[in-house]
Amino acid sequence: MDDRRCLQGILYVLVNDIAWQLLPLELGFGSGQTCWRRLDRWQQAGALDQLHRILLAKLHAAGELDWTRACVDGSHVRAKKGEPRPARHRSTGGERAASTI
Length: 101
Known about the structure:
The chain is 43% helix and 0% strand. It has 101 residues and is mostly helical. The longest helix has 15 residues, at 47-61. It is elongated and about 75 Å long.
């Protein structure tokens, strides 16, 4: 299966939010497993990160990016293991009142 058809299959699965095994063979993109393996191989090789950087650079150069509407999703930021937790501070608020009931 050529790379272009696999990329089309990958995009079809991602855009339509379907499971890889549900990719219709009639569309000519190959099997879902073939597309998934190709995606995994490209990811391992760093090709998708490179493609993303190139696309952002071209869009930025063309003035097509509106950075005022950008957001950062913390779910993709790796948590630092072993990072010391901040110490708990004593409250400066008043004591809790005793129950008057």
